[in-house]
Each structure stands twice: as C-alpha cells, then as structure tokens.
Specification:
96 residues, 85% helix, mainly alpha, single chain, 0% strand
Length: 96
C-alpha cells in the first residue's frame, strides 16, 4: 500500500506542477497581456494531460498494482517520479 501511495504522490506532483503553470500562464496572458499560448504552454498542457491521465489510471488500477510483486511496484513508483522529473526538465529547457 505504501508504494501505491508513493506512486500517487509522484504523479500528483507532476500533474499539479503542470496545472499550476497553466493557470499562471492563463492569468499572465489575460491580466497582463504577457506571453500567450506559446511552446512552453503547449508542452505544459501536454505534460499535465499525460500525468493527470496516468494518475487517474493509477487510481483505477490500484488493486491490481498493489497485487504486483515488490520489485515491480518499486519500478513503477520510480517511473512515476521519473516522469515528473522529465516533465520539469522539458519545461525548464523550453522557457526563456
């Protein structure tokens, strides 16, 4: 159960990061007229959709994930956190 929760935390961190950046970008565009739907905006939305979808899938398939072996669950959790780090790195590489 602990590894399942750790996977949820890893995916939620990436999905929340992307969502907050999209909200910030929308407010900056609407209120200040700064930015707009550029490359970083599309990449951030894409990362949020991917991680949000995987978060929902992780929740739906929770019982099946918890029945997997310890090593398999550990690799899946590492993948969840790696995906969040990759999302952050791709975002960081595409802002100015």
């Amino acid at each position: 159960m602990r590894l399942w929760i750790a996977g949820m935390v890893g995916l939620a961190a990436g999905a929340g990061f992307s969502t907050l950046l999209v909200i910030y970008g929308a407010f900056a565009f609407v209120l200040k007229g700064v930015g707009g739907p550029g490359g970083w905006f599309v990449i951030t939305i894409g990362g949020g959709v991917v991680e949000g979808g995987l978060l929902v899938l992780w929740g739906i398939k929770g019982r099946g994930i918890r029945k997997l072996g310890l090593g398999t669950r550990g690799w899946l959790v590492a993948g969840c956190f790696a995906l969040t780090i990759i999302n952050f790195v791709i975002f960081s590489a595409n802002i100015r």
